[in-house]
Design a protein that fits this description.
The protein is α/β, with parallel strands linked by helices. The protein contains eight helices and five strands, in the order E-H-E-H-E-H-E-H-E-H-H-H-H. Strand 4, helix 4 and strand 5 form a beta-alpha-beta unit. The structure holds zinc ion (ZN).
């Protein structure tokens, strides 16, 4: 990690009064927008996993990169509820792609209106086309102006595939959650005598029974290093092209 000042100014946007927001903003005009879902993640994990994970990761990132972390958005399209061939119909709130698109666009507009230079949008839910819609709105917004740059990404897109791969309620996501929100996971609710499956357990990816908070902390460290670099390169580019 690069040599940053030991105390980086950051905060939770909704909990701050204007003077504190302005103090942090003056040092770090970066907003973090964690984007989650309320989606069934098996019997072993909280349904808010995607937003809890994204919010927890944004907070850890803000501690080193500085800036203001917005509360997570829990509006998602293309949840497991709508996946063909699967019977996981309960415990997911599924919203339309039109609403998602509109919410993304208006958040980007409003955060640009607040003069943030970088809006780091972290998609905890990467169901498709949900994820592509948010990336598409970011791209369109960036093409239309040059004072605010929207980054739209996901934790697994910033981390080497050797460390963690895209998954649902499996080793990667569950380890992240054990690190950020340990009270939202219960590994004892996974089957003891067989490998969990997508059909029976809503698990897609490596066996979540191997998850741990230690692994989650390692994944988080890899995420923070990569995301920090991306944000600082983006700020440098914006400020040199003025
Ligand atoms: Zn998830």
């Amino acid at each position: 990690m690069s040599a940053k000042p030991s105390i980086t100014a950051w905060g939770l946007y909704e909990r701050l009064m204007p003077a504190e927001i302005e103090r942090i903003f003056a040092a770090h005009p970066t907003a973090y927008l964690p984007w989650g879902a309320l989606e069934y993640h098996g019997k072993h994990a909280a349904i808010g996993l995607d937003g809890l994970k994204a919010h927890g990761l944004c907070m850890e990132l803000a501690k080193v990169s500085g800036g203001l972390v917005l509360p997570p958005i829990y509006v998602a399209a293309n949840t497991i509820k709508t996946a063909p061939g699967l019977e996981h119909k309960r415990h997911s709130l599924n919203f339309s792609e039109e609403l998602l698109r509109e919410l993304a666009r208006q958040h980007f507009e409003q955060l640009a209106d607040e003069k943030f230079q970088v809006v780091f949008t972290l998609c905890g839910h990467v169901g498709q086309p949900h994820y592509d819609i948010i990336k598409d709105e970011a791209q369109k917004f960036n093409a239309g102006q040059s004072t605010t740059h929207i980054i739209a990404t996901s934790e697994t897109d910033l981390i080497s595939k050797d460390i963690v791969i895209v998954n649902h309620a499996a080793l990667g996501e569950i380890s992240f959650l054990m690190h950020t929100d340990p009270d939202c996971v219960d590994l004892s609710r996974l089957p003891a005598d067989r490998v969990p499956t997508l059909e029976d357990d809503a698990v897609w990816g490596p066996d979540p029974r191997e998850s741990s908070a230690t692994k989650g902390a390692e994944y988080t460290q890899a995420f923070v290093a990569s995301a920090q670099k991306l944000i600082s390169e983006t700020l440098t580019r914006l400020n040199s092209s003025e």
